[in-house]
Amino acid sequence: MGCGASFLAGGRSHVDGREYSTSIANLGVALSLSSKTASVGELKVFHREFKDIKNFYSFGKLIGKGQFGSVRVVTDKSSGAKLACKSISKRRLHCQGAGPEDVLREVQIMYHVAGHPNIVTIKDVYEDSCYVHLVQELCTGGELFDSIIARGHYSERDAAAAFRSIASVVAHCHNMGVMHRDIKPENFLLSNRSADATIKATDFGISVFFSEGQVFRDVVGSAFYVAPEVLRKRYDKRADVWSLGVLLYIMLCGLPPFFAETEREIFSAILSREVLFEGEPWSHVSEGAKDVIRKMLERNPALRATASEVLEHEWVREDGTADASPIDNEVLRRLQNFGALNKLQQEALKVIATNLPEPEVMGLRALFREMDSDGSGNITVQELRQVRGVFGNGGEGELPKGIPEGGGGGDEPYEREFLAATMNQKDKLERQENLYRAFRFFDAGQLRQKVLLLCRDTAKHDSAQPGG
């Protein structure tokens, strides 16, 4: 049917002395020798002819966006099966300093760790002049925290069961010589919306192969979950276990152990602040849960528990000591507010973009109006892509992060999203007057209440920490 597993491997032939499975090792894939110098249209990740995925799958609704592409529901034209397709933009890779070897590695890793019940199954891989398409198992149950909140009730035993599935993914990856490097709730989805849905790890975009004793120095991951040794640029697989500890802390408390207003302050707290279990809801959390968190959030990696040891902990084990008594509903409310942070940030960027002084956005606004060839106030994907060299050198212009793949014509002007996606977001978010404008816009009703409650929770949490 597709080009799937017929071209997935190459690179390393061994991981810690263990050979790849025959089905992978015999695939014989090579990165195109011209990948470093080729234009985007000529660049090949896999050494084979381009094939049009639309001959095999029909594309449906957009269900996710990331740094390098988007995820859509697709339908297999031969079987009618619904799947998910992660389309990775070659131009975005090119413009943001990544390379085809990163995509190749992600595909290799997904096939290498396949077969675990809590890892999403990769079905097919296609490549054309603009994208690499990864066709995967479709997960329809939503993100981990959203599913917890939707249940409306929650116990330590529930938390232990969910966490056990996630920790088993990390243990499996480590046993297979793979370090995940981005353990966070957003990267774990539910297979469906039923009560017995399976948790699935879905993103291996920055995962790497490793050998025992190998040290990594590149700083990757997500701010709240990154291990202190990653910030010090000297780490190994045990950094994943730290991230597991942060994840479980949030699952039982509703807030991360190291919470601050800026990334710099978050990193400072990770490097120096002691993890405490004071105040609510910790007085009602069992000592077993606190003990396994302490073992994972041990700052000395040499003393930190391994993923396998975490799975053997008495609180984590399937027949373990985790209590079935309900966790305080305050934790569910905190989880809901914490999960809304990223969504709120994206909306705030749109408000900030449309309220910036004209000199700051004059160039981007002019660029938008140049693209808006029909003067409709919206730009289509085709109009955007017709402008060569806007987001890179030559080739078709690629969509920046934050612009919907489906084009304009929605309920709000496309110009606002265009400005939000193309401006210097970090600089604009850290300027107090811009944040004040955004707050005034959102200063109404339920959203205002959620922001204030989150600020209150954070203040209480910080006051319980040394120096708080």
Automatic annotation (TrEMBL):
Residues 359-394 form the EF-hand domain. It comes from the Eukaryota. Keywords: ATP-binding, Calcium, Kinase, Nucleotide-binding, Serine/threonine-protein kinase, Transferase. Signal peptide: none annotated. Gene3D superfamilies: EF-hand (1.10.238.10), Phosphorylase Kinase, domain 1 (3.30.200.20), Transferase(Phosphotransferase) domain 1 (1.10.510.10). Residues 57-316 form the Protein kinase domain. SUPFAM superfamilies: EF-hand (SSF47473), Protein kinase-like (PK-like) (SSF56112). The keyword Disulfide bond does not apply. InterPro entries: CDPK_Ser/Thr_kinases, EF-hand-dom_pair, EF_Hand_1_Ca_BS, EF_hand_dom, Kinase-like_dom_sf, Prot_kinase_dom, Protein_kinase_ATP_BS, Ser/Thr_kinase_AS. Belongs to the protein kinase superfamily. This is Calcium-dependent protein kinase. It comes from Volvox carteri f. nagariensis.
